[in-house]
Amino acid sequence: MLPRGRPRALGAAALLLLLLLLGFLLFDWRLRGAAALDGDPLAGPRDSNPSDCGPQPLPPPKCELLHVAIVCAGHNSSRDVITLVKSMLFYRKNPLHLHLVTDAVARNILETLFHTWMVPAVRVSFYDADELKPQVSWIPNKHYSGLYGLMKLVLPGTLPAELARVIVLDTDITFASDIAELWALFAHFSDTQAIGLVENQSDWYLGNLWKNHRPWPALGRGFNTGVILLRLDRLRQAGWEQMWRLTARRELLTLPATSLADQDIFNAVIKEHPGLVRPLPCVWNVQLSDHTLAERCYSEASDLKVIHWNSPKKLRVKNKHVKLFRNFYLTFLEYDGNLLRRGLFGCPSQPPSGAEQLQQALAQLDEEDPCFEFRQQQLTVHRVHVTFLPHEPPPSQPHDVTLVAQLSMDRLQMLEALCRHWPGPMSLALYLTDAEAQQFLRFVEASPVLAARQDVAYHVVYREGPLYPVNQLRNVALAQALTPYVFLSDIDFLPAYSLYDYLRASIEQLGLGSRRKAALVVPAFETLHYRFSFPPSKVELLALLDAGALYTFRYHEWPRGHAPTDYARWREAQAPYGVQWVANYEPYVVVPRDCPRYDPRFVGFGWNKVAHIVELDAQEYEFLVLPEAFTIHLPHTPSLDISRFRSSPTYRGCLQALKDEFHQDLSRRYGAAALKYLPALQQPWSPARGS
Amino acid sequence: MLPRGRPRALGAAALLLLLLLLGFLLFDWRLRGAAALDGDPLAGPRDSNPSDCGPQPLPPPKCELLHVAIVCAGHNSSRDVITLVKSMLFYRKNPLHLHLVTDAVARNILETLFHTWMVPAVRVSFYDADELKPQVSWIPNKHYSGLYGLMKLVLPGTLPAELARVIVLDTDITFASDIAELWALFAHFSDTQAIGLVENQSDWYLGNLWKNHRPWPALGRGFNTGVILLRLDRLRQAGWEQMWRLTARRELLTLPATSLADQDIFNAVIKEHPGLVRPLPCVWNVQLSDHTLAERCYSEASDLKVIHWNSPKKLRVKNKHVKLFRNFYLTFLEYDGNLLRRGLFGCPSQPPSGAEQLQQALAQLDEEDPCFEFRQQQLTVHRVHVTFLPHEPPPSQPHDVTLVAQLSMDRLQMLEALCRHWPGPMSLALYLTDAEAQQFLRFVEASPVLAARQDVAYHVVYREGPLYPVNQLRNVALAQALTPYVFLSDIDFLPAYSLYDYLRASIEQLGLGSRRKAALVVPAFETLHYRFSFPPSKVELLALLDAGALYTFRYHEWPRGHAPTDYARWREAQAPYGVQWVANYEPYVVVPRDCPRYDPRFVGFGWNKVAHIVELDAQEYEFLVLPEAFTIHLPHTPSLDISRFRSSPTYRGCLQALKDEFHQDLSRRYGAAALKYLPALQQPWSPARGS
């Protein structure tokens, strides 16, 4: 019974009750998700109800810049990082700043890639991994990530002092959701927490996986460091640099090495300073390691956020659900990265360097212009992934020559034969879609001949637009050649077996570079037969020529392209001889690496090599034909581009327009000397010619 | 100043204040999003604050089945629907039931597609659009969607009576988010609302777009019906069928026709019964029509949910942000649909028909088996999109012949020549990725020769796995041939110009089918030269043969494949002559459409045609060589598959295993008669042979 005569107090009590109720409701809502977080961080995912373990946190303020740090070294990790970045960009709605700690190889690849990718609202900073090595190289480590994994430990001291928060990711991560939701979890940190981590989804740190398994110390199952939310400011304040070093040194007194690189050390520090860690919901790092317990997490989650391929077997890991996860990964592996060049809705951002001028130039094009496609293709900036596969350039030699060529998917079959004919370095540009790049990768891996060659550099130029950007491709391959000389070839030619050695000897004997500015001509022939026995020497070549089994290149359709080489003289020649430039000359030549670039305005087919030879002549290169050099063109199905060219008067009209513009440029640069080339440029183009 | 001596009242007042404050906070949160929904539905998107117009509704119960209805007719709309479905499947986390109202063409395409796609947790029901036509054909309509657009009006009476709620989508919709979020908006309907719609994002219904523009009546800007949330139960209760008919009939007294099909009628009904409509946030139907005002919506939304390409220009619509939107569309247009064959996390669902047995068979394979790739490839069920492009089969004729062949991207160049050589119907299977299918589409559109042909059916079989499933492809093309006879050819052959007419005449003269079970042999030749003038008659062919410019097919590498055709006899023959089966015979033949299928176990290269000819012989087909028929193989770059075959003893070993199993099957089916084929099957395979 309530005491009577105290209505006010009663009212107040009722109000208090109501208040408590409402307060409860309110707090229930605010903390619903956090409950799982605040629970025992070491309880298994099942205990903490995984379908609740991804509560909807408030999204971060719209347009807030999010920072992401990744350590990446070498060719293969660079490919992995690109897939990770594609998955991140696909779902993101915020501007991003990527902080990439890279070795020289990864830096060259990723710098070129991001520069040519031109994704709006993405900034990239590079940090030199080699400089960080001394800070971690004293730690003995058995993990497959090597020294680079350990570098995550030194990020607080490496990233800019003003940077307070960063998400750190391993390269073998795939996003299946918006990274901003992960960033929003920073808001759940208490005032002292500094490291957000997901529990390790295996029993590794329990130390019971096998007899005498002695893992590093950890709280319960420990944490996985594939995804880390770092409060850099707090770590710096807490003396992180001393903290982890002290712990690591102490543990290494009794343990021989780290088994899981940085993760062992992070866990040991956390065991000592449990207040530092903020446990994160399990879906933010679903770990598909060999002995994974991740199923406890994902089997009840409706929503998967981040997949972590943390087995050395990667996609080939045994897991009954691996196909599901693999599909997420493959989605981004093969995703057309060009489609990620999209701005953010409602977030104004600085356009990437060069993008603004490009947009303006594109906007000025007239869509009704019959040559619109040409103009557009010329302006296209292709995404470029240099040294797509592992590449070990040979030691620098003064007269070495790199074979330079370009191709697309339909010429992959040439690569093995080319490797057999040219034992020296090659720089090849491949024009591929993202999906084709993966087919190419599998093709090389399946070929013992190709897999054995470390001196062939493959540069992927991603497809965009309807016309084959032949000269842009040649320029990419040329720019990546590392030897002092280059042999500018085409993919459907096989050089004489002796050519590589012979060229180096000739360059030395002729004293090129220092004394003479010369282009060495490699005479070109062709066979019309698929079944063809390659002549081992000039003598055999001449015999085949006399027997009608070989022809000089384009003998039937366009003899003018190679006539100035003077095949009759070549038959008898014992020493290199000079020839003069004549209209339409387009020999295959060996020149110094710093030779003029190809004119990128020539896209599709026609005039692309002729213009380059004009340029060499204008710059007063001397043309010297080598008496023992030869290369032979093999037959192939005509490309789609060339079929189109042959059937279209518009195409030929546009080519004439390009030639006119090319000559205007020549006149501007060489004045009256360019008059020499005018008749050649005004000649109408023969559709039978081809490339 | 506070009155003294009333501490209790003071405390109560303070509590009240706190209570109000908390209550306010709580309700502010609960209703934040709903405010935009409850506001004036006709206010422009800007007025209703578009960045708020997509509040986070509670997600629908996990694993709830969502229903989607789409009206689809014809080849082109079928392609559109597939892109829409891909975008929906990519983001969905719920089981889906698709209700497809289709004409016969779309049904054939989509039924085959979904049957072979085998996406878990997707059910598809078909409804016959032709049966619905009488219900809407009385309505004069000027919209490009024709009669089919109007069929959305009759969905409440067409879909199952027990179905209460459905999302109705136009075919030109792309999802950029999870459809469950849209479904969740049903929860916002009041007790009487039955139709959820987004405001029309143009001034069309304001009637001020041009002089004398007289639109149908609508509330303000009206609503767009590209995305509809339908409470079917309520509409049925409200007498929807009478309702819309009455309104339409009345309006058609003064208006000549609907301009925007069903949308005009929906708007007229809503104007009369505004209580029916539930306005939806603008981001759920961002309309890129010609005079769109959508920018008001998307420019401030951080999150785009659904894009609607509701201009007749579709992707070519002029809009300064169209590139952004197009990237969403292209993402799914080119997305590998195989990757969507993934189950839902945590939602148990009936596996698609056949999927369980397939999974079991795949699970039983031994990954260590050197022929694992073969076994896996044989079991692969490829997604099939029949009649990918518009196709108009010629009227049925008793002796008509369809040319049947298969190809991949690297043989597209053959299509034009093939069309010139074969004026009759063709059924071609193309083995492509989703992205390549789009390249193929552009290739056909750009070719006047191909675009002019309506009697060539292109069936896309989507790539999956490392080996070319040559016989599965042949079977797809064969199954889709509509004439009584088929010419089983290969893509790199060009038939004699007269062959189509000659075959039909021969079939008639020989009385095939009714009287005789015969395979008509078309003798095969080859040229090794690209530049080759096709012989207009047998006389010229023989002259080229004698001159060494032509050979009988595989004369150098594998004469046995065609030797039984007896070329010497063919030279002189004036009438068809019978030949006997001999080991390794693999002629190109004309047979009735109901001939035995190819054995799908032969994947990659080798024995695929030989086994089919064995099957014909076992079924006692008589082989008749036609004296005036011939076909000529053109040279081409060797395919990647064949290069692999030639270099791999494992590959050849696996092929021998396939042959052994093939023979076991033959024995099972034909008993002792199969003994005849045993020696042929035990012969080792020659790597030089090829296909």
List keywords for this structure.
homodimer; 691 residues; alpha/beta; Spore Coat Polysaccharide Biosynthesis Protein SpsA, Chain A; nine-stranded mixed β-sheet; seven-stranded mixed β-sheet; 25 helices; elongated
Topology:
The structure is a homodimer of 691-residue chains.
Chain A: H1 7-38, E1 66-72, H2 74-91, E2 96-102, H3 104-117, E3 122-128, H4 129-136, H5 146-150, H6 155-158, E4 165-169, E5 173-175, H7 179-183, E6 195-199, E7 223-231, H8 232-237, H9 240-251, H10 262-272, E8 277-279, E9 286-287, H11 295-298, E10 306-308, H12 322-333, H13 355-364, H14 372-379, E11 384-385, E12 401-408, H15 414-421, E13 426-432, H16 434-446, H17 448-451, E14 456-462, H18 470-479, E15 485-488, E16 493-495, H19 499-510, E17 518-522, E18 524-526, H20 538-546, E19 551-552, H21 567-572, E20 577-579, E21 588-592, H22 608-618, E22 622-625, E23 631-633, H23 640-647, H24 649-670, H25 678-682
Parallel strand pairs in A: 1-2, 1-4, 2-3, 6-8, 9-10, 12-13, 12-15, 13-14, 17-22, 18-23
Antiparallel strand pairs in A: 4-7, 5-10, 6-7, 11-14, 15-21, 16-23, 17-21, 18-19, 20-22
Walk me through what this model shows.
Two copies of one chain form a homodimer. Chain A has 691 residues and is of the alpha/beta class. The first copy, chain A, folds into two domains: 217 residues, Spore Coat Polysaccharide Biosynthesis Protein SpsA, Chain A (Alpha-Beta Complex); 297 residues, Spore Coat Polysaccharide Biosynthesis Protein SpsA, Chain A, CATH 3.90.550. Chain A has 25 helices and 23 strands. In chain A, α2 packs parallel to α3 and α2 packs across α12. The first copy, chain A, is elongated and about 85 Å long. Chains A, B: InterPro entries: Glyco_trans_8, Nucleotide-diphossugar_trans, Xyl/GlcA_transferase. Chains A, B: This is LARGE xylosyl- and glucuronyltransferase 2 isoform X3. Chains A, B: Keywords: Glycoprotein, Glycosyltransferase, Golgi apparatus, Manganese, Membrane, Metal-binding, Multifunctional enzyme, Signal, Signal-anchor, Transferase, Transmembrane, Transmembrane helix. Chains A, B: Its cofactor is Mn(2+).
